[in-house]
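Changelog note: in this version the structure field was regenerated for every chain. One regenerated record is shown below for reference.
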Amino acid sequence: MPLLKTFFTAIIIILTISLFMSFRIKKTERQSYRLVRQFEDFEIRFYPTSIMATVTSNDNTYMESSNSNFRRLAGYIFGNNENQNKISMTAPVHIQKKGNNNEMSFVMPSSYKMEQLPTPNDSSVKLHYSDEGYFAALKFGGYANDKIIEQKKEKLKKLVEQFGYQTIDSFRFLGYNAPWDFFNRENEILVRILFKE
């Protein structure tokens, strides 16, 4: 009986932490965009330029070096920089495959200008501006892995082609949640397209 009570207490604690973290992520600044067109299964957005912190690794999949890449970027915003400044986490985290390279990026808070951001101590962390443009986006929930990402990527690719749009860059995975967010998980596949309003 004490073991059962301990088990249920642990479940309640986990659920409470998860709900708290889910609430916290809703308060996290998100990368801004403008919704341009809504379809049944995907949407088209316009993303203005943002400042990104990016690390690059040599990988065959989206998730192969996700833990080490995340640690390097998190180190930068948690103080591994010339001024030991802490920078707020934003959402989403971008992962993009370009040939044999894998890029993971954090979007810097919109309150910063490039000259206000501290230089990373880790030379593998690069600060740069993202390209503005039109993107097709497909949303999905749950925990993502390489198999699921590839399936969703193929779905978005077919939808984009079906509606006569042309992709002009590689597909990227966007993750909005921490690993311990069990509920209301948000993920997206994003690809830049040729589009005129």
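Spot check on this record: The radius of gyration is 18 Å. The domain at 2-194 is CATH 3.20.80.10 (Multidrug-efflux Transporter 1 Regulator Bmrr; Chain A).
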